[in-house]
């Protein structure tokens, strides 16, 4: 349903994405592992149309969307929950979850419950700097759930989330996929990636292996520890 | 007869501008409606004394809140000039006696202005332990033919609280020259907030000065401006930490959202006591890219995204 074909992007002379191929299948959770700086967030921004690749194509439902704008992609059903979400002065959580849609109060409350935020406490809070890092991330996840996207990129939705709330978050992600959203789940955690149907390992701007979660976790740990991240591990 | 007509016209404009018409009818709530230099309605409430004197160009107002009285209903003020031209000079003397508490909501209405001048000179005295909040909202037509010149000197007594907001986001002003200056005594807490949307050829000057003269006095001078078209603005936030443990902060944000916009911020922090601390932050720039991208990734187009961000900042 979403396919990246030979994507390349050079930033300040550094090939950050370097011939990347990846396919995210309809309704499936696709995990993405990779050490810091390997290009995962950059890939997310390419998929969302925040930046454009120098080479390669992005295909969504058979259509080449490589040149489409953010808004166009969003309207097609692609969305993104950021690794470090933006803050907004004067915008309440309730309003943020209801951007561009017409949800009832109880629906909005339901999405907040799904990420473990009690609505009475959070509905009218602003998503400004007063929210903690973990709270902001959970709001971000709730906001993409509210969209019911066809594809969602979750950039480390579990990072900064306390261990008590993590199961909520993971449940929420599985629930999204059950309701038909394909998920590209970028994460560093073995626990998080275990909910995936399929996992890819990224190194130096490309996907170097894809398989089942457990397999890939093992493979990642044993290979990427000794790798000097120059993308030579490709199998 | 003419006065009745004027009053009705003012009420109509007041209602259109979002004023609370019912609030003006509450028997035991204070209110004051002034058109140009005519007092159309003045209602004292228990614990409040309002004296007015019409002058050739405006009205002198004396406003007193009696000692220890906590006023239940907000006091509503409505100032305006309805015709295309006119001058309105308001002189306001406020005495909030010790331990009193009141919330004043003012609407300033100039829907048809082509050449209107609205001046306010306020001399405000907040007694010890008194709490005074003052919220002024402006409604202007689209022509931008108003010179708005509000000036206030506010003395906040020991443990006194002053909170004011000045909001001008509806319509187009023309020229705004806002200058509020606070003198805070021991353990007083003062907050000045200005929210302005500049449009067309608007020329805007904001001065927020806070003197933290007493020990442990606190002050916050905050401003939020969104500048469109060819609007020009300069914001001066000055805070003086003159006493031990005085704490002050200046927070200015100006969004540049037009090709011809010129935005300036001049924060000034001054400390002459080694235990005082004053901080400032000023940011001027176009709308945050990441905020835009975030909203667009939720399906908003560019214009809608700008609108959501700007409305939030000015809220
Ligand atoms: N504008 C830029 N100019 C130069 N280098 C950049 C730029 N943006 C990103 N990079 C580099 O590209 C690489 C990939 O960054 P990216 O944020 O995609 O990594 P990541 O895999 O998401 O890492 P993490 O796990 O830490 O989130 C990093 O080395 C980063 O420093
Ligand atoms: Mg990243």
Oligomer: heterodimer
> Secondary-structure element sequence of chain B?
HHEEEEEEEEEEEEEEEEEEEHH
End-to-end span of chain A in angstroms? 24 Å
Q: Could you tell me the radius of gyration of chain A in angstroms? A: 17 Å
Instruction: Enumerate how many helices of chain B there are, as a single number.
Output: 4
SS-derived structural category of chain B: mainly beta
Highest-level CATH class of chain A: Alpha Beta
CATH H-level homologous superfamily name of chain A? P-loop containing nucleotide triphosphate hydrolases
Count of spatially separate domains of chain A: 1
Strand-pairing-aware structural class of chain A: alpha/beta
* Arithmetic mean pLDDT of chain A: 92
Write the layout of secondary structure elements.
The complex is a heterodimer of chains A (235) and B (315).
Chain A: E1 2-11, E2 14-24, E3 29-33, H1 40-48, E4 55-60, E5 63-64, H2 70-76, E6 78-81, H3 93-97, H4 105-114, H5 119-122, H6 133-147, E7 151-155, H7 166-178, E8 182-186, H8 190-193, E9 198-203, E10 206-211, H9 213-224
Parallel strand pairs in A: 3-8, 3-9, 6-7, 7-8
Antiparallel strand pairs in A: 1-2, 1-4, 4-5, 9-10
Helix pairs in contact in A: 4-6, 6-7
Chain B: H1 2-16, H2 21-25, E1 31-35, E2 38-43, E3 48-54, E4 58-65, E5 75-80, E6 85-96, E7 101-110, E8 115-126, E9 131-140, E10 146-156, E11 161-170, E12 174-184, E13 189-198, E14 203-212, E15 218-228, E16 232-241, E17 247-257, E18 262-271, E19 277-285, H3 289-296, H4 302-314
The structure holds adenosine-5'-triphosphate (ATP) and magnesium ion (MG).
Magnesium ion binds at residues 40-41, 83, 155 of chain A.
